[in-house]
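Example (one chain per record):
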Amino acid sequence: MSVASGRRPLPTKIELIRIKKSLQVANSVHKILEDKRDVLLRKLDEIIEEATISRDKMWEPLSTAYRFLFNTYLKVGSITLESIALTTPSQVDVIADVKPIVDILVPTLKLSEKKSELTYGFADTSSSLDTTTQMMRLVLPHICSAAESENTIFRLAKELEKTQRLINALEYVIIPSYKDSIKFIASTLEEREREDFVKLKHVKATMEKRKAVT
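Predicted structure:
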């Protein structure tokens, strides 16, 4: 009979042994989950720091790129710049994979080492466009790193929440229920033993009286 169902367990020695074993298992699982929670918390701190570093590394080349892009816009005009943009690939090659962190598979992102060629000539453009392109290429790995870290943070946080729910269930429901059942069975068995002892004494006294009469 399940202890967690709220029903009183059978007050037998076999049931007492079974519940004591279940309590030992619950305590072991509780310890494992606490260790897992601690590891998750440490990993979260590490990944949050990595994400912060990646974001910080993004801003300088990104702001530089937009500044030079604005200068290019002023020098070559919107029509030329838009025509160059139309010939520029709208996506980059990224190698996606997964890696385990505390038994959780998290995605990894890495830019392909394949270099994309320039899609514009130097005659109708300015050096500021070259700087813009260079800065954008510098910022892409940090964007991938930041995206990878933030996705990992989300997954670790979700696993941490799940782990904490299990710990709470063990601490406030399952383990107390096992302890209450053990206490109930033990007290019931002790009461039975006292009753049996009293009955035995009564039977013994009755038999001794009968012997004395005969």
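Caption: The chain has a mean pLDDT of 83.
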